[in-house]
Amino acid sequence: MHWGSTVGVEVRWDSTRDYTLTPEVRAGHFSGSFKDALFQLAQKYQMLDAPLLLEFSEDGTVLRVSDQERPQ
Prior knowledge:
Layout: H1 2-5, E1 10-13, H2 23-27, H3 34-43, E2 52-56, E3 62-67
Parallel strand pairs: 1-3
Antiparallel strand pairs: 2-3
């Protein structure tokens, strides 16, 4: 993932889903640090059946993206 590599973060995409970039996301402006912008983006997807789960390694160099299970 190019966006992560520009700030020295390895992105591991473990999600089983392909997420479509909606017009709202494409037109969005995300600001702040890499983490700030990433969480702003992820909030756009929280209403999905399987929202994104973002987990950073302790040292912040690896980001794991996976499917978040909804509580039953």
